[in-house]
């Protein structure tokens, strides 16, 4: 007798994204062209109550592009390297 197992994959809980200020402003600030300023995105992130959840998500999912949780790609990489030590 062969018993099949069913694996259920659930979507991550991303409800926090609906409350994030970036959801109300658009992605242009948060995914700028290379070499462009991220100052405006960081200013918006600084006011966002969801910033910690956003940064956790970015670090957990190894987001490589854009501003997440108030940090740029380079800043998140530096944070990961520091944490790995």
From TrEMBL:
Pfam families: Whib. Belongs to the WhiB family. GO terms for biological process: cell redox homeostasis; negative regulation of DNA-templated transcription. HAMAP family: WhiB. The lineage of its organism: Bacteria, Bacillati, Actinomycetota, Actinomycetes, Kitasatosporales. It is found in: Cytoplasm. The keyword Membrane does not apply. Residues 21-78 form the 4Fe-4S Wbl-type domain. It comes from the Bacteria. PROSITE patterns: 4FE4S_WBL. GO terms for cellular component: cytoplasm. Binds 1 [4Fe-4S] cluster per subunit. Following nitrosylation of the [4Fe-4S] cluster binds 1 [4Fe-8(NO)] cluster per subunit. Its cofactor is [4Fe-4S] cluster. [4Fe-4S] cluster binds at residues 22, 45, 48, 54. InterPro entries: 4FE4S_WBL, Whib. Acts as a transcriptional regulator. Probably redox-responsive. The apo- but not holo-form probably binds DNA. This is Transcriptional regulator WhiB. It comes from Streptomyces zinciresistens K42. Keywords: 4Fe-4S, Cytoplasm, Disulfide bond, DNA-binding, Iron, Iron-sulfur, Metal-binding, Transcription, Transcription regulation. Upon Fe-S cluster removal intramolecular disulfide bonds are formed. The Fe-S cluster can be nitrosylated by nitric oxide (NO). GO terms for molecular function: 4 iron, 4 sulfur cluster binding; dinitrosyl-iron complex binding; DNA binding; metal ion binding; protein-disulfide reductase [NAD(P)H] activity.
